[in-house]
Amino acid sequence: MGKIAASDHPGALELFHKILLASTAIPGAFPPVMIDVEANGNRYQEMHVDGGATAQIFLYPPVLKVADISKQRGIIRQRRLYMIRNARLDPGWAEVERRALSIAARAITSLIQNQGIGDLYEIYSQTQRDGIDFNLAIIPKDFNTSHLEEFDTEYMRQLFQSGYDLAIKNYQWKKLSPGL
Asked: Are residues 162 and 83 in the same domain?
């Protein structure tokens, strides 16, 4: 995004806005963002949605071994990773109606939650391999405020206050991936 913002290309600002908008385009909740591209002399439109469709959390490609690259280049430094995961990691109980749509919705919710946990395992493995200090913050188990809608502002206010209160009390970052 920095390279796009620094570009003198006349379409840079519009592209920047489209990418930012696409990053919030949750499938099913918001429309996808179409971005014009050119490849091999042909013009296309690519459909873009929230990156959570492929990964909830991303550090860097797992094949990139930061420790090896740093050693090869003579760059020795302490590295720390601080991640704030806006989710609980324990499975949330929910009553599900015996209807296909309700069951499918709950299954998708479970898939998304478990994808995020899997992403944490992958990132934790990367940090251990590459000598990076791992630090994770999550929504605590004792935060039990319920919300009836995905975008419930009262829930969001209470969640913010909970996080703020934990930070003021010197939040103890999780040093291990969930389940370890």
From this structure: yes
In-domain check, residue 58: no
CA atoms within 13 A on the CB side of 22: 17
Task: Give residue 144's pLDDT band: very low, low, confident or very high (50, 70, 90).
Answer: confident
Which residue type is seen at 23? S
Q: Is residue 67 within 8 Å of residue 131, measured between CB atoms?
A: yes
The model's pTM = 0.74
CB 79 within 8 A of CB 126: no
Give me the residues paired with residue 85 across strands. 138
Is residue 148 scored above 80 in pLDDT?
no
Measure the CA–CA gap between 28 and 92, rounded to whole angstroms.
Answer: 22
SS3 7: coil
- 6-12-17 Cα angle (round to 5): 105
**Contact assessment for residue 39 and residue 26, using Cβ atoms and an 8 Å cutoff:** no
Domain that holds residue 41: 2-51
